[in-house]
Amino acid sequence: MENKFIIVTKGNGWVEIALNRPKVYNALNKELLGELLEAITEADNDEKLKCIVITGRGGAFCSGQDLKSVGGDLDNIPFSKIVREQYNPLILKMAECRKTIICKLNGLAAGAGCSLALACDLIVASKDAYLAEIFPHIGLVMDGGSTYFLLNKLGYTKAYEIATTGRKVYADEAEKIGLIIKSVESSELNEVVQQYIDVYTNASLTAVAGIKEMLQKAAGMSLKEVLEMEADYQQKVGRGKDFIEGVRAFLEKRKPNFNQ
Q: Using CA atoms, how far apart are residues 97 and 56, in angstroms rounded to an integer?
């Protein structure tokens, strides 16, 4: 299927998916969300890929839901239907995706766009970029997983403050409080993101995917349950070819080649 609202560019072991509605700051509509879900699903199923980058074309990452696309009858917008059918499958797919998902935050990420960024495993942002949970400014609560992501990344007090004020959290502050991994000059954004891409395209996909699953599960577990989970995953991952290659590389004092 030809994409209308995203641009997919493949590299060596990675793929970039760029939201492509620059005239509306990459606002999300049903079609774009569907294309994004399909592209991530395809990337997850592609054995040659280890890393997915999500970014936006133009001067923004994503301005959130395209309010014009939900219709003019404000009294009868099917909020739950839109969230359950358009957003939830995408956010769940991103969480379940075995590949590392990096957000290249090149501009504003507001509302559902903020949720999309937070759903990525890592966010690298230019210093002029910001995250904003603008939902209360239009009389709505957060969706797209922001309630979960903010609370888990920041704890209740800071999550509450950012969520209820809807203020702009610029990259430097976002890095300081742990919302993003790195704040860089806009001229350095591509280079720094590429450095992370290089890490994950050369890493063991089996190990990284296992760690991603474990970290997501561990939040609701006791220490005893985590220890049992670690034992189970170690048994499963340790039977893979990446472990053998990693040990051989260690003994031979060379870098492992996990792309065999």
A: 20
Q: CATH code for 205-251? A: 1.10.12
- How many angstroms separate the CA atoms of 123 and 54, rounded? 10
Residue from 99, 132, 108, 128 nearest 208 by CA: 99
User: Are the C-beta atoms of residues 100 and 200 closer than 8 Å to each other?
Assistant: yes
Tens digit of pLDDT per residue, the chain (260 long)? 689 999 999 999 999 999 999 999 999 999 999 999 999 999 999 999 999 999 999 989 999 999 888 777 778 888 999 999 999 999 999 999 999 999 999 999 999 999 999 999 999 999 999 999 999 999 999 999 999 999 999 999 999 999 999 999 999 999 999 999 999 999 999 999 999 999 999 999 999 999 999 999 998 899 999 999 999 999 999 998 999 999 999 999 999 999 75
The pTM assigned to this predicted structure is 0.95
| CATH 3.90.226.10 correct for 6-201 | yes
The ranges assigned to domains in the chain are 6-201, 205-251
Burial degree of 135 (CB within 10 A; 0-12, 13-18, 19+): buried
- 52: phi then psi, degrees, rounded to nearest 5: -120, 130
